Amino acid sequence: MTRSIGVGLVGYSFMGRAHSAAWRNVAAAFGSEITPELVVLCGRDRAAATAAAARLGWSAVETDWRRVVERDDVGIVDICTPGASHAEIAIAALRAGKHVLCEKPLARDLAEAEDMAAEAARAHERTGVVAMVGFNYRRLPAVELARRLVASGRLGDLRHVRAAYLQDWLVDADVPLSWRLVRDEAGSGSLGDLAAHAIDLVEHVSGARLAAVSALLTTFVATRPAVAGAEGLTSKATGGARGEVSVDDASLFLARLSGGAVGTFEATRYATGHKNALRVELNGSLGSLAFDLERLNELEIYEQGRDEDASAGWRRVLVTEPEHPYLEAWWPPGHVLGWEHSFVHEVHDLLAAIEGGGEIHPSFADGLAVQRVLDAVERSAASGAWVETGLGHRLRPPADPGLAVTPARSAQKEEP
Ligand code: SOE
């Protein structure tokens, strides 16, 4: 018998809308798990929240998140607010025995992330609730296929990682000062907003941790139009007072990965012409993989020695076959998926973990690991020196029986 679980959504702008669509669609797509009920949407402006709830499919409205956390009909609290309120809401929800889904990056800084991860561990121990951080790109079929290929040894020993997350919505100096540009609200700029995704993706797909970094951060535009409630991304302002941009506009760093690989990471919201270009490439001793978010249904693969003749080269795999990850819920081969499907898969996996009483990844502990890298990047950029993240050990990705790949030499060697 299917059972249902109530969801309370805090925040309803860009990410809140994406999450709402996921909660609405997941049961129809996957069928099997607990059915989510869109119980309550929370926003401080009652009129705006009421309009959003009606449009996005939520049954009730609260204007104080504390009321959401207290409600008996809410089993999952979904946090889609700016970073400044993540820790307070998540910790209160976990203490109230709710499961939590929290947007990325987990927190504004390391201390907040440590508190959140500690509370999540305690709450799991006490009541079995799970806490997930919203690194949604893990849930794209091509990314999950890449992870499985690496875990099965297809790349051999990992040598290089190249990750870039490029957007251009800040190129115009009159894009308003939204919360994403204020340190007290967001924690950091391109670093937490974009590089965090790249870090998580690399660690998830490769199974390695970023052990040490050497970084530089820069801010190109010092002030922007101060417009109350500005969301950024697509808005523009003219005239009026300007406020200080207190975060990085671009973040670049070199990394040493556990297991011996090296990597370059680049994130900016000033890469003119690049809209949402998250590209990750892994080069190993036996082959290479490349993923590009703007072509998210595809995985590029090169296998050393696979073809010995003039036809050797990169292959483009269209990741839409029924045997590919998550595709059992969707369309016939070639009927491609979009950005929003990553959120449907995210909540599907969260519901499955709740149903099975198991763990969920990326957990708050995984979010904390990313935060350690963000913190090390900021310290390195400030000092000009290499900084260790404290994540020197190597994870061993689970071998995945779900994918028939020829085992090659294991890419994963445990660190001593
Ligand atoms: C804006 O840069 C943004 O919406 C990020 O905040 C998201 O995490 C990313 O997925 C898309 O771009």
How are the secondary structure elements laid out?
Layout: E1 4-10, H1 14-30, E2 35-42, H2 46-56, E3 60-62, H3 65-70, E4 76-79, H4 86-95, E5 99-102, H5 110-127, E6 131-133, H6 141-151, E7 158-166, H7 183-186, H8 190-206, E8 210-218, E9 223-225, E10 242-244, E11 250-257, E12 262-268, E13 277-284, E14 287-292, E15 298-303, E16 315-318, H9 341-356, H10 364-383, E17 387-388
Parallel strand pairs: 1-2, 1-4, 2-3, 4-5, 5-6, 7-12
Antiparallel strand pairs: 7-13, 8-11, 8-17, 9-10, 11-12, 13-14, 14-15, 15-16
Helix pairs in contact: 1-9, 4-5, 5-10, 6-8, 8-10
Which key features would you list for this structure?
416 residues, alpha/beta, Rossmann fold, Dihydrodipicolinate Reductase, domain 2, 2 domains, nine-stranded mixed beta sheet, six-stranded parallel beta sheet, 17 strands, globular, disordered C terminus, binds alpha-L-sorbopyranose
What does this structure look like?
The protein is an alpha/beta fold. Helices cover 31% and strands 23% of the residues. It is built from 10 helices and 17 strands. The strands form 3 sheets. The protein has a 9-stranded mixed sheet. A 6-stranded parallel sheet has the order 3-2-1-4-5-6, sandwiched between helices. It has a two-stranded antiparallel sheet with strand order 9-10. Strand 4, helix 4 and strand 5 form a beta-alpha-beta unit. The radius of gyration is 21 Å and the shape is globular. The C terminus is likely disordered. It binds alpha-L-sorbopyranose. The site of alpha-L-sorbopyranose has 5 residues, from helix 8.
